[in-house]
Design brief:
alpha+beta, Deoxyribonuclease I, Chain A, about 30% helix, globular
Length: about 400
């Protein structure tokens, strides 16, 4: 910031000179104004995005996994494996599926378009749901322009996992990673945990893909408990830790017991960004109206649900250091990744049908990108701000030196 910029700002306060002399009050006001201006100019930000990409599989069999519907038609052993499917529908689907490497490449390009075509800049942290293995995630990482990712190695029978891609630079440093098993009656996806510092401030990100709605509500409560217990453990060791939990939580309002109300939001452990956004009186009704009615549309029941969320802990909304920017929250898909759906709005008359925009879901049988679609989910995005000046962190070496000096005295 140059000196001329400072004085252009200060000129706005000329009229106050008639009321204040050049004493302590005037100096205080001007000092505060300069400090606030400097902070606003130098504030930095990172972008966080979570996206269920809907079945990102490669075209090779993973030993021990039921991934036969995502293999070429003539893949060795596929015919015999498909015959073992109990469901007549799933058996026929498995036989007919012809998932080739060309289709994998098209799918990767579709995901890249959603992430980059309109937004241009890569999110600093990109959580991905419904992904198969490090090989296909490695290909997507390169296509998007990332160099780093972490992913789970879950016991899920189909081989479905979650991943987190992220930038590493002068401000973003990775500290550690872990994953947590959700102990329910059927193998499901692990929860991914990755710890970072951002601008010197601690941040832990969890990526989730909870058991589907075809399973008992108690299974999602168990997933919530695994997440909540780990978060409490982290906060007990470091109350200043900033925590984000994002992904596909497969939770709807009718769930009972409800995993958000009874676990995640209990005692204000987490806040749900979409709900805070809707309740924020500083955000205009026009901006709130831009939110879709959900992140997922269920065609059979013509229902919208918010399955995809970004939760955060209180340290991220205390007006200090690393801070979530709630007005930046988006439930996002570019227009080219959506399609029109005509819904009944009264009579059977065509003029009474309402057009809604829903995600253009992925079609495995497509032979071109134009036919393939993208995903059955919207993504969710939010921004975090932090001060330019990093916090002063005393090293163990410096601490020992100080202790030695004190001892001599």
């Amino acid at each position: 910031m140059t000196m001329s910029f400072h004085w252009s700002l200060l000129s706005k306060f000329d009229k106050f000179k008639a009321y204040f002399n050049h004493g302590a009050i005037m100096k205080l006001i001007l000092s505060l104004f300069i400090l606030m201006s400097a902070f606003s100019v130098h504030a930095k930000s990172v972008q966080i995005m979570s996206y269920n990409v809907e079945n990102l599989f490669d075209a090779k069999h993973d030993e021990g996994k039921i991934d036969w519907s995502f293999l070429p038609k003539d893949y060795p052993g596929k015919k015999e494996a498909c015959a073992k499917e109990n469901s007549k529908y799933r058996r026929a689907e498995c036989y007919e599926a012809n998932w080739t490497d060309d289709k994998v490449e098209m799918k990767l390009s579709q995901i890249a378009d959603v992430v980059l075509k309109e937004k241009h800049d890569l999110p600093d942290f990109l959580g991905l749901v419904e992904v198969e293995n490090p090989e296909v995630i490695g290909r997507l990482t390169k296509k998007l322009g990332y160099e780093n990712f972490e992913m789970t190695n879950s016991p899920d029978n189909r081989g479905v996992d979650v991943a987190l891609m992220f930038k590493l630079n002068a401000d973003i440093k990775k500290i550690s990673r872990a994953e947590h098993v959700v102990p329910v009656d059927y193998p499901t996806r692990n929860i991914l945990e990755v710890e970072f510092t951002v601008g010197g401030y601690p941040l832990t990100i969890f990526v989730n893909h909870w058991p589907s709605l075809a399973n008992p509500d108690s299974w999602r409560v168990k997933a919530a408990e695994v997440l909540a217990n780990r978060v409490k453990e982290i906060l007990a060791k470091n109350p200043k830790m900033n925590i984000i939990a994002m992904g596909d939580f497969n939770t709807i309002d009718s769930n009972n017991p409800h995993p958000f109300k009874t676990v995640l939001e209990k005692d204000n452990l987490f806040s749900d960004t979409v709900e805070v956004f809707k309740a924020d009186k500083t955000i205009s009704d026009a901006d709130k109206a831009k939110l879709p009615p959900g992140s997922y549309y269920y065609p059979k029941k013509s229902e919208w649900n918010y399955l995809d969320h970004i939760f955060y802990t209180s340290e991220l909304h205390d007006g200090k250091d690393l801070e979530i920017v709630v007005p930046s929250f988006e439930v996002y898909l570019p227009s080219f990744a959506m399609k029109e759906l005509k819904r009944k709005a009264g009579s059977e008359d065509e003029k009474d049908r309402k057009i809604v925009m829903i995600p253009n879901r992925f079609n495995t049988e497509a032979k071109s990108r134009e036919e393939m679609g993208f995903s059955d989910h919207f993504s969710v995005r939010v921004k975090l701000n932090y001060p330019d000046a990093a916090p002063v962190v005393e090293s163990n070496k410096d601490a020992k030196k100080k202790a030695a000096v004190k001892k001599k005295k």
